[in-house]
Amino acid sequence: MSDPTQIQPVPTMAPPPPPWHTPVKKRRRWPWVLLAVALLGFGGCTAMVVAAGSAVDNAVDEANKQTEANGGISTGAGSQDASADVGTPAVDPPEFGMSHVRIPVTNNSSKRSDYWIELSVTSADGATQYDTTIATLSNVEPGQSATAETVITKDFPA
Question: How high is the pLDDT of residue 75?
Answer without folding.
Answer: 53
